[in-house]
Write a structure and sequence with these properties.
The complex is a heterodimer of chains A (288) and B (280).
Chain A (H helix, E strand, L loop, with lengths): L1 H35 L2 E4 L3 E4 L4 H42 L4 H9 L6 H12 L6 H6 L13 H25 L3 H9 L4 H29 L3 H6 L7 H11 L3 H26 L1 H9 L1
Helix pairs in contact in A: 1-11, 2-6, 2-8, 2-11, 6-8, 7-8, 8-11, 8-12, 10-11, 11-12
Chain B lengths: L11 H4 L2 H4 L2 H28 L18 H4 L5 H34 L5 H13 L2 H15 L5 H24 L4 H9 L4 H30 L2 H6 L6 H9 L5 H28 L1
The chains are: A mainly alpha (288), B mainly alpha (280).
């Protein structure tokens, strides 16, 4: 009897320490953020709880442009990342041979340099007198008023650059799971290469694409590093607004209302997305 | 060249026919493509490494002005920068340790027990991983503000442990799912106590997952910028220092340190990768 009780309690004992940490520093903070978002006041007079939901209407009317821009950038970057990453994952999985681990290793290496530093490197490369555009300008190959910095292209390419490995890996994992005999069967049934790809390989690898989208869309949409370094005043994203309000201006009620909306929108979107596609599959591939 | 050798884990017979069917040209084109993408991935890192050798005279380290080892020799000439790097490393080490201690049991519980609350735990971990970093940082900052807690070194550590635990739990859990429970029973039947069973049977099975989770935690922590910025106060980590300095132009020492972190990280990953491969 005592033994059975101990066994029943074991999983809870195992989960408790980590779970407590997550509860105190992940779940409760969300409640704190929600509470802060309905307060009024400022840094000098202090903040008091007034259940002022007007903050939400306020920030939405002030910053909907940046919101919409972030979603558009997020969608464009995510699609670009899928298109760029799929062929690479495909090649590594089907043609990588014994060197597969090496390719994956190379793909992950850039993560050892912080994103801020890598984005600054892109600034060196893309600025008007930088390593790429400087020579082109000097040789007269591109017009003097041609810029890359401070354009949507610069910001989106920065986001795309960052996300490619997060997409290649899950697609690769999904492709690896395809039983090679299935491909053989397709060719035995007289499917040509295009048909085999479209009817067999692609559908079977979709869980990988879905997992990759999951890992890419949220960070890309809520990012502010790329827009800050590579963008100009016309590329401000919602992350930049939240960062400025929280850290520079200490406008906590507005800032927390805005970040709560962002977090809620993205999480609801993700859960809807995962539910529609079957959470198990997506989770499993993202974990692997 | 484009070898079509079958991957290690699949039986040779299943991949053999692929050799005939796949034309070499298509493979070759995508081979070149793969290397072009890798080149793109490494381009900013090469630029960073090169600018650490740039004989620049102003803070604007933008154009190539000749080769020098000056910045490597005066690597620690900027006290703030050195301090921030030390912070980054010590935080990453503490965070790795605690995330492994707290996350491993969670992964074990999720991987092998069925219990009420399993789904909720899964859901919370998934939400933590899926949530935007800025949301996690903002929420934690809101809590710190509400508690009147001054931000600094330890608030960063708390935040990093919070977002690393789920990653450790997931990698350990993935390792657990292929775990044969009868092995533990066998150990018990042979008279091993719970601790001995854990040490001699369970731990060796899950250790690759634990190592992978630890590496992931270390990399996530040392690389993190967004959550760190929200929870740091006046304390600086390496990415925060770079961010602050970027408005004025970053000194070459920062490029040198970036290069050193990159090389050390690459070597660590390589060694642990080789070790894990040997075990399997």
């Amino acid at each position: 009897m005592r033994h059975r009780l101990a066994t029943a309690l074991t999983p809870y004992a195992l989960i408790f320490p980590g779970g407590l940490w997550i509860a105190i520093f992940f779940v409760i903070p969300i409640v704190a953020m929600l509470s802060l978002s309905t307060m009024s006041g400022n840094l000098l007079t202090g903040f008091s709880q007034t259940f002022d939901f007007g903050n939400y209407a306020n920030v939405l009317s002030l910053y909907h442009t940046q919101f919409i821009r972030s979603v558009i950038y997020g969608v464009i970057a995510t699609v670009a990342v899928v298109v760029i990453s799929y062929p690479m994952a495909y090649w590594i999985s089907l043609y990588g041979g014994a060197r597969k681990p090496t390719y994956l290793f190379l793909l992950l290496l850039p993560f050892f340099v912080t994103f801020v530093l890598r984005t600054l490197s892109w600034e060196f490369l893309l600025s008007d007198q930088g390593l790429l555009l400087g020579p082109l300008h000097n040789l007269g190959l591109v017009p003097q008023d041609f810029h890359i910095m401070a354009t949507s292209f610069a910001v989106i390419s920065g986001l795309t650059y960052y996300s490619v490995p997060f997409m290649v890996l899950p697609i690769y994992v999904a492709l690896e799971r395809i039983n090679r005999e299935v491909l053989e069967a397709a060719s035995d049934l007289y499917a040509n290469k295009v048909q085999t790809f479209l009817k067999v390989v692609l559908p079977l690898s979709l869980p990988g694409v879905f997992a990759g989208v999951l890992l890419t869309f949220v960070p890309v949409t809520s990012d502010y590093v790329s827009a800050q370094i590579l963008g100009g005043t016309g590329q401000v994203m919602i992350g930049n607004v939240i960062e400025t309000l929280y850290i520079t201006n200490s406008e906590y009620p507005q800032a927390s209302a805005l970040s709560f909306i962002l977090m809620a929108a993205l999480l609801l979107g993700i859960f809807g997305y995962a539910k529609a596609l079957g959470t198990e599959d997506v989770l499993e591939v993202s974990a692997a | 060249m484009t070898t079509l050798a079958p991957p290690r884990e699949t039986a040779p017979s299943t991949t053999q026919p692929a050799r005939r069917r796949k034309p070499r040209r298509k493979g070759r084109l995508l081979h070149v493509y793969t290397w072009l993408i890798l080149l793109w991935m490494f381009l900013p890192i090469v630029v960073m490494a090169a600018f650490g050798f740039n004989n620049t005279h102003s803070r604007y380290n933008f154009t190539w002005q000749g080769f020098t080892l000056h910045w490597w020799q005066n690597l620690f000439a900027i006290p703030n920068l050195t301090g921030s790097l030390v912070n980054s490393f010590t935080i990453a080490i503490i965070v790795t340790l605690f995330s492994v201690i707290l996350g491993t049991p969670m992964g074990m519980a999720l991987g092998r027990y069925r219990f009420r609350g399993h789904g909720t735990t899964d859901f919370v971990l998934f939400a933590n991983i899926a949530a935007p970093e800025i949301g996690l940082g903002a929420a934690l900052l809101s809590l710190y503000i509400a508690m009147g807690l001054p931000r600094g070194y330890w608030t960063i550590v708390i935040a990093h442990i919070m977002f690393c635990i789920p990653f450790v739990a997931i990698t350990v859990r993935a390792r657990m799912s292929g775990f044969d429970l009868s092995l533990e029973e066998a150990a018990r039947d042979l008279g091993a106590g719970p601790l001995t069973t854990f040490r001699l049977v369970t731990l060796p099975m899950i250790i690759p997952g634990v190592i992978a989770g630890a590496l992931l935690s270390f990399a996530l922590s040392i690389d993190d910028f967004i959550i760190t910025e929200f929870t740091a106060g006046q304390t600086l980590t390496f990415p925060l220092w770079i961010w602050g300095a970027s408005r004025l132009g970053i000194p070459p020492q920062a490029d040198v340190m970036g290069t050193i972190i990159f090389v050390v990280g690459a070597l660590l990953a390589l060694i642990s990768g080789l070790l894990l491969r040997k075990r399997d």
